[in-house]
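Anyone up for a design puzzle?
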């Protein structure tokens, strides 16, 4: 956790110290400390031109509504919006309490009071009825369970509180949790729930920076982590050297369990990969398109011994006989001439590019939502005639699925070679039943066709 401190330097590696003008966005922090007096001093420096101020992006801050630079009023309005957003998401805002004051010279922001940046709980306001002027050097913890009780103990005699809360103010008792009181019992350390976050008012310390500042920073950081229920960080190296009975055995058991989880995760990932590849074989029976049917067809053809190559969403399969242009088509209707036209265009381009004849293979999944045995006419007769005339094979996905399933069961290499040969040598609609032992004829003249 990093803490943003505004208006008061808190020396610690985990704290980003800034002014109200040059700070990054407040809502990027889970914990924010704001010195109300330091904020007012920065604004007065801008007004009396005793100090130049820039934004976090190095833009000049100006007290003007227009012209070069960023208007101070715009930045101050934005800071309140950022705190609202931070509190809405559960942030902690620790405020060093000071008596009420007013600045009226900011262009576009008349009547700027001490707590302009801070939203209040419902029914309360940071006004003179609630926050009273008062200076003292004595305060004691009233609630030792509160995380910021350690801050009160840490500053000890370095305290110089500048204001206290009126615990008789309407709504105070219901909204406030007092954790520190002055010697006379006045609340000087108070927590409020605001929006979805927490606002904690702290009695101001006398010293700034140095060893005192480091004490303040350490106490505030520890209290913020506890209040936000955040881890305190990694233990120092010497802690692991301290023996504790049973700890080593439990650490070994945890390591073994973590290793088992990693192995199981790797096994699951491998199983999912294999499952995806195997499921893809069955996808040829019902899917369509290049994103579903095409990879399923390619996987099945690879099981039959083909090699595949993809370029510009076009796939070529190859075997010992050469390279063959692959087209696929799926539809709830019979497959017509669309894959034929695509294949012809590819074959013509290849002849033009390479100067040699080429052959194609069309895999079709017509009437894809019907079970294969219930498909009446999955291929239009025009496609069969075109394939025979143009010399390429049309392979129904039911035939491809049967061949791929047989290959998974360990089909003989000679049978696989015969299947590949048929797909790259025979024209028209292909049947593989006889090669798979189903007694089907080599040609598919008996397969149902859709007549135009």
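Challenge accepted. My sequence:
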């Amino acid at each position: 956790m990093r803490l943003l401190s505004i208006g008061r330097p808190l020396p610690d590696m985990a704290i980003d110290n800034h002014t109200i003008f040059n700070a990054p966005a407040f809502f990027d922090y889970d914990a924010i400390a704001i010195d109300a007096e330091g904020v007012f001093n920065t604004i007065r420096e801008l007004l009396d031109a005793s100090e130049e101020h820039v934004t976090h992006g190095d833009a000049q801050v100006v007290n003007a509504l227009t012209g070069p630079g960023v208007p101070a009023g715009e930045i101050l309005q934005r800071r309140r919006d950022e705190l609202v957003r931070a509190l809405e998401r559960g942030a902690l805002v620790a405020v060093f309490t000071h008596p009420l004051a007013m600045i009226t010279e900011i262009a576009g922001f008349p009547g700027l009071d001490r707590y302009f940046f801070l939203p209040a709980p419902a029914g309360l306001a940071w006004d003179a009825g609630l926050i009273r002027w008062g200076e003292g050097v004595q305060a004691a913890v009233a609630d030792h369970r509160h995380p910021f009780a350690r801050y009160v103990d840490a500053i000890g005699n370095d305290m110089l509180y500048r204001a206290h809360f009126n615990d008789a103010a309407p709504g105070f008792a219901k909204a406030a949790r007092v954790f520190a009181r002055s010697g006379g019992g006045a609340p000087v350390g108070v927590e409020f729930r605001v929006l979805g976050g927490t606002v904690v008012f702290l009695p101001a310390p006398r010293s700034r920076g140095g060893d005192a500042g480091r004490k303040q920073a350490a106490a505030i950081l520890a209290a913020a982590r506890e209040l936000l229920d955040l881890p305190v960080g990694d233990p120092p190296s010497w802690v692991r050297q301290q023996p504790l009975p049973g700890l080593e055995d439990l650490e070994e058991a945890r390591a073994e369990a973590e290793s088992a989880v990693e192995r199981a995760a790797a096994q699951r990932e491998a199983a999912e990969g294999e499952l995806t590849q195997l499921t893809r074989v069955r996808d040829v029976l019902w899917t369509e398109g290049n994103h579903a049917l095409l990879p399923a067809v390619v996987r099945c053809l690879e099981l039959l011994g083909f090699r595949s190559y993809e370029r510009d969403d076009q796939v070529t399969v190859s075997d010992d006989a050469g390279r063959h242009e692959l087209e696929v088509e799926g539809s709830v209707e019979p497959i017509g001439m669309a894959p034929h036209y695509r294949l012809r265009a590819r074959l013509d381009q290849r002849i033009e590019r390479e100067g040699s004849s080429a052959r194609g293979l069309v895999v079709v999944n017509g009437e894809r939502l019907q079970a294969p045995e219930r498909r009446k006419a999955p291929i239009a007769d025009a496609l069969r005639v075109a394939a025979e005339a143009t010399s390429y094979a049309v392979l129904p996905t039911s035939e491809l699925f049967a061949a791929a399933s047989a290959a998974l069961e360990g089909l003989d290499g000679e049978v696989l070679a015969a299947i590949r040969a048929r797909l790259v040598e025979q024209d028209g609609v292909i049947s593989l039943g006889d090669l798979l032992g189903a007694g089907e004829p080599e040609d598919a003249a008996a397969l149902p066709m859709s007549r135009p």
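A detail worth pointing out: The first strand starts at residue 3 and ends at 6.
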